[in-house]
Structure formats: C-alpha cells, structure tokens
Write a structure and sequence with these properties.
- With about 1000 residues, the protein is mainly alpha-helical.
- The protein is about 75% helix and about 0% strand.
- It has 54 helices and no strands.
C-alpha cells in the first residue's frame, strides 16, 4: 500500500514547478541527518521511522548503507523479535561493511538473549573484540564466557571468567562466582570453596555460594560439615529453590552416618518437594523405611531408585521383591525378582533374584511363557554350587505339570539324561496334553502321534494313559477310521473308572464307531451302556443315543423296538425331537400302519414347522397316501413339496411321483408338465432320464409320439431318447482309467470325451473328475472352472462337493460376493446336515469379511441354534458373532459371546476372547476388571501366546492408567524378555510404551 502511494506521488510531482523539484531533492539529506541524530541519542523508534523514509529516495550509496545499518541496529535495541535476521540481511547486502564486527556482536547478543547459545557463540567468534568500544568489549567478554559455559566449553569459559574476575569492574564478582562454579562442577571442591569465600555475603551471589559450599563439602564426604552448612542454609534461606537439595544432603549424610531415624524426616521433605528425586537417595530412603517397617513406603522409594540398567537398579529391584514378599504380594514380588535377575552387575544379587523369581513362578503358577522351566534349568547351569540347588531339583519335576507350554516342557524333560519316576509321570501327562492341543487345533494326525507316544510309555500316569485312549479314539473317528476308533473306545471303557469325566461318553462314542460300521447289535449294547452311565439326562447326547438305538433296531427290522426308542428320544429332548418323530412315523409305514404314519407326519410338521425333515415328511406322507389309494391327496402333498422345497434332494423324485400319480388318475397334461419340470430343473440326472422315459409312456397313451420325439430331440444330447452307445463307452472308459489311479491318462480321456460330447450324458461326471485331477495337481483355478460347470449343471450327485470347493476357492481368493452366493446355495440345497452347516458357516465368515456385520451376526445366530454343531464350528460362529456385534456397537451382547469363548483358552478364539474382554474393560476404564481378567487369563494359560502377549500389554496399560508406572514398566520388560514370538506389532507396542514410560 505504501508503495502505491509513493508511485502516485511521483507521478503528480512531474507537474510541479522546478522550484518545487529543487526543494524535494534537498529533503532526503534532512531525513538522514535527523534520523542519525536520533539514533545517536538512543531514540531508535524515531530514528527508524525517518531512516526508513530516507532509504527509498536516497541515491547516495554510502549514506544509504549507513542508514540501513542504523535501521537494523535500532531493531535490536528496540527488542524487535527478528532483529537478528535484519542485521544478517544487512551483512548479506554489505559483507565488507565497516560495521560488520559490531553487527556480529549484536547478532550474537540477540541469540544470547534468546538463550540460543550455539548461535550466540558462532557470531561472537566472528567478531573482533578490538573493534568494539570498551563498554561493548566488557559485555562481549561476559556474554561469550557465559555462552561457552552453557555449551559445556568449560575451559574457555573458565579462562574468560578468570580474566573478568581480575580486569572487569562490572563483572568482577560474576567472573569470580562462575569460575568458582566451574571449579565445583569439575570436582575441584576446595578451589571452589576458596573462590566462594569472598562472596559469602554478596547480595547477588550469597545464596548460591552458600548452596554450592554445602554441596562441595558433601561431595568431599565431610559429612559433619555438610550437615552444619545445610542446616545453616535452611535457616538463612528457608524458601530458597535450593532448600530441596539441602534436605537431600541432610537425609543422605545422616543415613550414611547410621542415623536412619533422624534421616527420614529430612528425606521426606526432600521427596515431597521434588518430582525427580535422585535414585541413590530413593534407595537409601527405601532401606530406611524397611528398618522402620514401613513396607509400602519402602516399595515406593525403591521404585524411584529404578532407572537405567546398572547395579543400583538391580539392587533396588531385589529390595522391591523382598519387600513385596513381606507384604504378601507374591505376584508383584515375582515381577521385581525377574527384573533383578536380568543383569549381572552384582552376581550375588542375580543368584538370589533368579532363585526367588523361579520359585515364585512355580508357587503362583504364574509363568505364562514357561519361564519357570527354563529359569530352573538356567539357574542350575549358572549356579551349580548354590545353596538353593537341591530345592530347585525337587521343584523342577513338579513344574513340568503346571506349565501351559507343553512343547517347552517336553523339550526340557528330554534334556534330562536320567529322569526319575516323577519326571516320567510328568512326561506322559505332557505328551497327552500336546496330543489334546493338536486335536483342538484340528491336526488329527499330529494328535494321534502324541497319543501313541503317551500310551507307549505304559502306566506311569494312568489318567494320562486312559485319556490318551479316549482322545485317540476321537481323532480316529474324526478321520473316518472307525475300526481304530472303536478299538480305542473299547480299551478306554475297560480301563477307565466309572468316575472318570469321560467314562459315559466313551460308551457313547464306542456306539457311534460301531454304528458307522453297520455293527448294529454291538452298537446298541454300547449305547445302552452310555444310557446307564450318563448322570445328566438332559444332555443332547442322551436323547441322541436313544435315536441311534432306534436306528439300530430299525436297520435290524425290529420296528416295534425302534418305535419305542424313538418315543423315548423325543421325550428326552423335545427341542430336537423332530428326527425321532420322523423315524417313528417311518417305522409305522414299515409296519403297514399307513394312517398312523400320516398322522405322525402331520403332527411332526405341525409341531416342528422349521424342521429340516419337512421335505422328507411330505414325501413319505405322499407314499403313505398312495398305499391307502388316496392318490388325490398324495398329489396335493407332492405339489406342496415341489413348490415349497425346489432345492430339496427329494424334489426331483417328488416330481417323478407326481407325474406318475397324474398319469394314474388320467390327468395326462399335468403328468407331462410334472415330468418336463424334472427334466428342465435337473438336467443330466438319473431322475431326469427316468422322467423322459416315463414321458414316452404318457405321449403314447395320448397317441402323440410326434410331439414327444420333437420335445426329446430339442433337449441336450444327454437327454435324448437313446443315449449314444459311443457316448457311454467313451465316458466309462475314461472313468475306468481314473479309478485305476492313472490321473494323467484319465485327464486326457475325459477331455477327449467332452470335446466329442460337450453336452453328453456324462458331461457333469467328466467335469467333476477333471476338477478332482486339477486340484490334485495343485491347479486350483482350473479345478474351480471345472467345478463351476458341475454346479451350473445342477447335478444333485456332485452339487454339494462342487459348491464346497467353489465357495472355499472364491473365499480364499477374495471373491467374496461369489463366495457368498455359493455358500448360500450350499446352505439352502445341501443334501445333508454337514453340507448345510458348511454353507451356513461360510455365510457367516463371508458376511463378516464383507463388513456386513448385521447379516454376519444374524447368520451366526441361525447357525448356533443348531444343537448338533461341532465344538470347533460353534466356537468360530460365536467368535464371528461377537466380533460383528462389536462393529455395530452392540458391545454388551458381544461380551456375552466372548465370555463364553474365554472359558476355553486352548483354542485361538478363547485366547483372543480373553484379550478382547480385558481390552474392553480397559477402554471402559473399568481398570480393576481389566486387571482381574488378564490375571485370570494368566492363570488359565494358553498355547496361543500372541494373545497372551496382547493381554499383558493391556495389563501394563491398566497399571499405567491406575498411576502405577513401575508395575506397568515391569510387565513390559518381562514381556520383552520372555515372549518368544516374532510379531512386529508386539515388539512395536512394547517399545512405544517403554519409551513413553
């Protein structure tokens, strides 16, 4: 804006008279002279205003330089914030200026005033003292000395202060004081006291001199004199900022003189007045409190003594552990002993701390990363002659049974060259636990191997051996090895006591293993043993056993007994009585009680409208009605089945029956429609072929063979009237090659078949086998393309297998929408309960990954309503429901799921649930609940140590939130030293928190 006004004035000046122009040219010199005069008088504001007007209109180079110099210096003396920058700008413009020495001194002074010592010294070093006026030379020397002192250049500072103390009138006392201070700070206490002597009553330095004199005598270990001087200082300067240090000197000196009772009050004043006490004094104060039996106060002091890793910290940590033991706080004592045992500044401290740490880890079962085993082993290696050695050997055997890290325990046992019986008992139990862990993780082969090893040890631990038989049987059963499963369950039931928690279930599982082998009579005997042994009659298995007994009698054609046991099963578990009701109705039909069968099926459909057996019930009802010659009613029932359950495995058979019944009643057009529906909805299936053959009969009855031929010839090749013999032979030859195990040759044969007959009768079969071959070769993308053709063909024979493969493939490759469609189709059309559950579980997983949390939670709820879920599926569904509910802020409901999951920390969902519960309580600021949750988790233990580590980080955060930073730090240090995982996020979280602490 000023520039604009100036330019406008210049334009107007063209029109002025020559006389006016002459006056204008004399005006700049006047501005300069007046400005310089004000500058010399110290009127820097006025000088700056005039000189700023002068510079733009001046053409005199020398005067203009001087004016700019005075403007820059005026800024400094006015205290303008960026005055240093203005002087630097002048030097940039006039590097050879005669004023540069003074300006560099003033620039240095501007940084000095801002306590920018490094920059101040830089500029002072460039100024020549000889070019400054005497007053400035004295100021220069002091400021340069002080800046060097602040930068730690004590030697140069000491030289300059020494010169000032001899030659300067203004800074003589200051030079003497700061030179004395440097003597003090470099440990030359006698020299410092000599300099301070002349300043003892100085109005400016007297207090500081008294303070440094007391400190100097204290540091010289003249304790009596230090006490006298400190007391004198407090009497003279009770409100001094140095009073706190005097209390420290008094407390420290008196403690070292053995006067702990007298020292405590002075120390208490010291600690009350400082936020950062010296660690050594905190340690002395802690020892003083221990002598006074003030243990809580002692712990607080010892915690203040903990700092960098050194001997003092190690001793303080040992004292914390021993004091915590006096307070009965074993867990906190253990953490302190652990921290003290990490270093070896004092070997005796390390030995004592390591033993106490290991002992407490064993006694409290507080060893989440199996520290107790390695601790005892390391202790014996490092201190073989320790007085604690015998005690350690006795404890070590017991420790193997209390650890949760069984791999570490087994490795430790195997390192013992001559194990005794107690160690071998522990080993057998450890092997069993490892097998159980592999079982939980779904590795049945690994589980069997560990159970084999446990059983092979013999009878050291009978419970471990018997449980190994039981769970090995479970593993064999899961792998479909029913003979081996039956053998193991048989041995278990013979060897285990009836009081064993798994005794009844051993009989139940034995029954199933025999049932799966069609050994129905022996299965009945086992199930009946279970029924007799089971004390909890409300268990699902109790009702299920009666259903299986009924099934066994049914297969042995003892229909009366079958019906009786189905009735007992229904009464035992009304919530799952639909199967028993269905089987009971079916048995009535076998006994030719068709009306009873119809009534029973109607009762089932009325009482259980959502039962999975509704489509079966409708189909069987139609068959019973036909047997009673009530074909019109049967037609209505079949129409209901076909309409309401189009994806049922029975839909195609119902369609054929419907066509037959329409034909029997003379309703040929409806018969044709029914058969055609089967052909169009289930192309390529045996039922479709049957429908086409039946359709020929209907058209023949109508004497309309031409329409039949036209229709049949319009269908794909596999649906024509007569399947090509060459088509059949080509496929069957390829299938024969596959069955012989020649996969590569079979692949070529199947491809040739599809090239010749792309819509042949067996094109679905060929694509299915090609999918299996591609998957076996590791080409999952190609396999998926073949299975997709199978699924698109809607072949009931292979549909479940194809959808199971495709849904998993799409899910794993991130094609979530397609995966969801495949899982949904599997859940709705699966031919058995396992397939349907696989689809339902897939829906839950996929909806969760898609971020459709409401849908994921609803799908999980639907799945969990099924009483026949495996524990693994149930745990995952509950976990995903809890996580989904968290995402939609239904945290209270989510917590219910996590609380149930957290009961079993052997699986990863339970371990993570423990962490989630603790973390949620922490976020709710329910710190006591968070602490209790983590400690309970630590007592339970888990093989999934990542989540244990995350929980311990929450515990550290909790302690910090509660103001206990020492405990917070110790848990982090313990985690850092004992956690064996390599996850980067754990280390990052630990390091970030430690740096903040």
């Amino acid at each position: 804006m000023k520039k604009t006004i100036f330019l406008l004035s210049f334009v107007l000046a063209i029109h002025l008279t020559m006389a006016q122009r002459t006056v204008y040219h004399h005006q700049p010199l006047k501005l300069f002279n007046q400005g310089k005069e004000m500058f010399l008088e110290g009127n820097y504001t006025g000088a700056q205003e005039l000189l700023l007007q002068y510079v733009p209109v001046s053409s005199d180079r020398l005067l203009k330089e001087e004016a700019k110099y005075m403007i820059a210096v005026s800024s400094f003396y006015k205290g303008v914030e960026n005055s240093g920058d203005r002087m630097k700008e002048f030097l940039d413009e006039y590097p050879e200026s005669i004023y540069h020495h003074r300006l560099k001194f003033l620039i240095g002074s501007s940084h000095f005033d801002k306590k920018e010592w490094k920059l101040a010294r830089f500029w002072f070093d460039q100024a020549d003292l000889d070019y400054l006026i005497p007053a400035e030379q004295e100021e220069f020397s002091f400021r340069s000395a002080y800046a060097n002192l602040q930068l730690g250049n004590r030697e140069e500072a000491y030289r300059l202060f020494g010169l000032l103390s001899k030659n300067s009138r203004k800074y003589r006392d200051a030079g003497n004081f700061y030179a004395g201070y440097i003597d003090y700070s470099t440990g030359k206490y006698e020299a410092a006291l000599s300099r301070f002597e002349s300043l003892r009553n100085h109005p400016e330095f007297g207090e500081q001199v008294a303070f440094y004199s007391a400190q100097s005598t204290f540091f010289n270990n003249r304790l009596d004199e230090a006490v006298r001087l400190a007391e004198s200082f407090l009497n003279s300067y009770p409100r001094s900022e140095h009073a706190t240090e005097m209390y420290r000197i008094l407390g420290n000196s008196l403690y070292r003189q053995g006067k702990t009772t007298t020292a405590i009050p002075y120390y208490e004043n010291y600690f009350a007045a400082t936020a950062q006490p010296l660690r050594g004094d905190a340690y002395f104060m802690g020892l003083s409190y221990v002598e006074a039996r003030k243990y809580n106060e002692a712990v607080q002091m010892f915690q203040k003594a903990v700092g960098e890793r050194d001997a003092l910290t190690q001793n303080a940590l040992l004292q914390i552990g021993q004091t915590r033991l006096k307070l009965g706080e074993k867990q906190q004592a253990q953490m302190a002993f652990e921290a003290a045992s990490r270093d070896n500044f004092d070997p005796k401290v390390r030995e004592t701390a390591m033993f106490n740490y290991a002992l407490l880890a064993h006694e409290t079962n507080f060893s989440v990363f199996s520290e107790s085993i390695t601790l005892f082993e390391n202790f014996l290696k490092e201190f073989p002659a320790s007085p604690y050695t015998d005690q350690v050997n006795d404890i070590l055997a017991e420790t193997f049974l209390t650890t949760k890290d069984y791999q570490a325990a087994l490795a430790a046992i195997n390192r013992i060259s001559r194990p005794g019986r107690r160690i071998l008992e522990a080993k057998q139990m450890v092997l069993f636990q490892l097998g159980a862990q592999e079982f939980i993780n779904g590795d049945m082969n690994g589980a069997v191997q560990y159970f084999n090893n446990a059983i092979g040890m013999g009878d050291y631990d009978l419970k471990a051996r018997n449980n190994s038989y039981y769970w090995r049987g479970e593993a064999h059963y899961r792998m479909g090895n029913y003979p081996n499963a039956a053998s193991d369950f048989q041995v278990f039931t013979q060897k285990a006591s009836p009081a064993d928690e798994n005794y009844a279930m051993g009989w139940y599982n034995l029954g199933y293993a025999r049932f799966k082998q069609n050994q129905f009579s022996s299965a009945v005997a086992a199930f009946q043993q279970y029924v007799a042994a089971e004390n909890n009659k409300s268990r699902i298995e109790f009702a299920d056993a009666h259903n299986r007994i009924g099934d066994c009698y049914y297969y042995n054609r003892n229909f009366a007994e079958a019906e009786r046991f189905y009735s007992v099963a229904a009464a035992a578990n009304p919530a799952a009585a639909d199967y028993a009701a269905y089987q009971k109705a079916f048995v009535m039909g076998l006994q030719r009680n068709y009306q009873g069968k119809v009534d029973a099926l109607d009762d089932l459909m009325r009482r259980y409208p959502n039962s999975q057996y509704i489509d079966d019930a409708l189909y069987e009802k139609s068959r019973a009605l036909v047997m009673m010659n009530r074909e019109g009613e049967a037609i209505n029932v079949l129409q209901q089945l076909v309409s309401n359950y189009p994806n049922s495995a029975l839909s195609s058979q119902a369609g054929i029956q419907l066509g037959q019944l329409y034909y029997n009643t003379g309703n040929y057009q409806n018969s044709i429609t029914a058969y055609k529906n089967v052909i169009s909805k289930f192309p390529g299936t045996d039922d479709a072929k049957t429908a086409l053959l039946s359709l020929e009969t209907v058209y023949s009855e109508l004497n309309d063979i031409e329409s039949y031929v036209n229709y049949a010839n319009s269908l794909p090749g596999g649906m024509r009237i007569t399947v090509s013999r060459q088509d059949s032979l080509t496929y069957l030859a390829a299938e024969s090659v596959y069955m012989r195990g020649s996969k590569s040759e079979a692949e070529s044969a199947m491809l040739r078949y599809l090239q010749s007959y792309p819509n042949g009768a067996y094109h679905t079969d060929a694509n299915y086998y090609l999918g299996l071959i591609a998957d076996g070769n590791g080409n999952k993308q190609q396999a998926a393309s073949y299975f997709r053709k199978v699924a698109d063909a809607n072949s009931v024979k292979y549909l479940d297998d194809a959808l199971i493969y495709l849904s998993a493939y799409e899910y794993n490759n991130g094609n979530l929408n397609q995966a969801l469609a495949d899982y949904s189709r599997l859940a709705n059309s699966g031919r058995n309960q396992n397939s349907q559950q696989t689809g339902q579980m897939g829906i839950v997983r996929t909806q969760y990954r898609l971020g459709s949390y409401h849908e994921a939670a609803r799908a999980a709820t639907t799945l969990l309503a099924n009483a026949n879920l495996s524990p693994e599926v149930s745990a995952e569904a509950r976990y995903l429901r809890g996580k989904s509910l968290q995402q939609v802020n239904e945290v209270e409901k989510a917590m219910e799921d996590f609380q149930l999951l957290a009961q079993d920390t052997r699986n990863v969902y339970g371990a993570e649930a423990q962490f989630i519960l603790a973390d949620t309580y922490y976020r709710w600021k329910s710190y006591d609940r968070a602490e209790s949750q983590v400690k309970a988790f630590m007592q339970k233990g888990t093989p999934h140590q990542y989540w244990m580590a995350r929980a311990l980080i929450v515990l550290s955060d909790t302690y910090r939130a509660k103001g206990d930073e020492f405990q917070a730090k110790q848990y982090l240090e313990s985690l850092k030293n004992n956690y064996k995982g390599a996850e980067a996020d754990i280390q990052q979280m630990i390091n970030e928190r430690l740096s903040n602490l």
